[in-house]
Recover the amino acids of this structure.
């Protein structure tokens, strides 16, 4: 966030130095900064939801074949064995994080050249494919 604010300030300084004859205008830079801020806020919200999941203690552990008994878990702890290869099983589900919320917005026709229109079209096609995959995984 700090870097985005610095970008806007630096852009204003450069524009003033060149008597506002810079190729990228401040409106564009501010729009980019706002878009990054929005994405950053959405990512922070998702990270908070995932942090709730990380706080949960597993109710059970399992190997690929069976549940481990409490005495087996105690043995892991007593022998200081790693639990990395064990599956963690929880009684509460992980908080729902909508991956679709993290996908950037569709780009509207803001392009002036064929190359830019192609880029916008590719962006939107890729975005649509990501959203379709998220929906299919539900």
């Amino acid at each position: 966030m700090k870097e985005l604010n610095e970008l806007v300030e630096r852009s204003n300084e450069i524009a003033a130095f060149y008597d506002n004859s810079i190729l990228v205008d401040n409106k564009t830079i501010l729009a980019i900064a706002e878009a990054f801020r929005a994405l950053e806020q959405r990512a922070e919200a998702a990270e908070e939801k995932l942090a709730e999941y990380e706080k949960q203690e597993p109710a059970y552990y399992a190997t690929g074949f069976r549940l481990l008994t409490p005495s087996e878990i105690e043995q892991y702890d007593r022998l200081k064995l790693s639990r990395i290869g064990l599956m963690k099983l929880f009684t509460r589900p992980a908080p729902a994080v909508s991956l679709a919320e993290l996908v950037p917005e569709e780009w509207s026709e803001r392009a002036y050249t064929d190359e830019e229109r192609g880029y916008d079209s590719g962006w939107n096609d890729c975005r649509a494919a990501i959203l379709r995959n998220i929906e299919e995984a539900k």
Remarks:
- Helices lie at 2-17, 26-55, 70-78, 114-137.
- The beta strands are 60-62, 87-89.
